[in-house]
Write a structure and sequence with these properties.
The complex is a heterodimer.
Chain A (H helix, E strand, L loop, with lengths): L4 E3 L2 E4 L5 E6 L6 E7 L6 E7 L2 E5 L6 E5 L5 E5 L8 E8 L9 E2 L3 E5 L1
Parallel strand pairs in A: 2-11
Antiparallel strand pairs in A: 1-3, 3-8, 4-5, 4-9, 5-6, 7-8, 9-10, 9-11
Chain B lengths: L2 E5 L2 E5 L4 E8 L6 E6 L5 E7 L5 E3 L5 E5 L4 E6 L8 E8 L6 E3 L3 E6 L1
Parallel strand pairs in B: 2-11
Antiparallel strand pairs in B: 1-3, 3-8, 4-5, 4-9, 6-7, 7-8, 9-10, 9-11
The chains are: A mainly beta, B mainly beta.
């Protein structure tokens, strides 16, 4: 059973560009959540996808968008990158939409915006 | 809104000493509480969770936490620290919606020989 995998592990983008981060959920998991972790901070909830539909969203602007595919993998897209978008982006999958079940986290994608 | 506050951004203990990491929660309803650990350059790993069953929760790697409603606390403890316990620890609570987590700012644990 493979765990949650994220790609790429690191990338550098220029302010104003667009970026796509990818996440493969753990086998059998239909729910994927994305979190942003700024340096020295705890993760902040961006949004969650359940069966290809957005199931909830945190306090992030619309330039943060996502997709979930039929195989339950997911993408996080960020448009018009800003310097403050520099962070570790974490993907978490779980077998049920209820967060009280354990969420399994990937290793994250470190995004640097210059 | 549900939130947690972690007291102490850095904690240093000697190998073999007691580990105590503090977490207080703010919740208008009975909360579900979690402790996660993050090793350098890695994602988060669940240590334990409280879901209103037993107030003393045992987790992996010898950690445990006690839910105290009167103190609105959910402190993480381990009787004897090991060098491999050095990591960042996050306390988290479910949001009102029930589908996402609100994390604290984290406590960095340093274990010295």
């Amino acid at each position: 059973e493979t765990g949650v995998t994220q790609s790429p592990t690191h990338l550098i983008k220029t302010r104003g560009q667009q970026v796509t981060l990818r996440c493969s959920s753990q086998s059998g998991h239909n729910t994927v959540s994305w979190y942003q972790q700024a340096l020295g901070q705890g993760p902040q909830f961006i949004f969650q996808y359940y069966r290809e539909e957005e199931n909830g969203r945190g306090n992030f602007p619309p330039r943060f968008s996502g997709l979930q595919f039929p195989n339950y993998s997911s993408e996080l897209n960020v448009n018009a990158l800003e310097l403050d978008d520099s962070a570790l982006y974490l993907c978490a999958s779980s077998p049920l939409v209820n967060v009280n079940t354990e969420a399994f986290f990937g290793q994250g994608t470190r995004l640097t915006v210059v | 809104a549900q939130s947690v506050t972690q007291l102490g951004s850095h904690v240093s203990v000697s190998e073999g000493a007691l580990v105590l990491l503090r977490c207080n929660y703010s919740s208008s309803v009975p909360p579900y509480l979690f402790w996660y650990v993050q090793y350098p350059n890695q994602g988060l790993q669940l240590l334990l969770k409280y879901t209103s069953a037993a107030t003393l929760v045992k987790g992996i790697n010898g950690f445990e936490a006690e839910f105290k409603k009167s103190e609105t606390s959910f402190h993480l403890t381990k009787p004897s620290a090991h060098m491999s316990d050095a990591a960042e620890y996050f306390c988290a609570v479910t949001q009102n919606s029930g589908y996402a987590l609100n994390f604290g700012k984290g406590t960095s644990l340093l274990v010295t020989p």
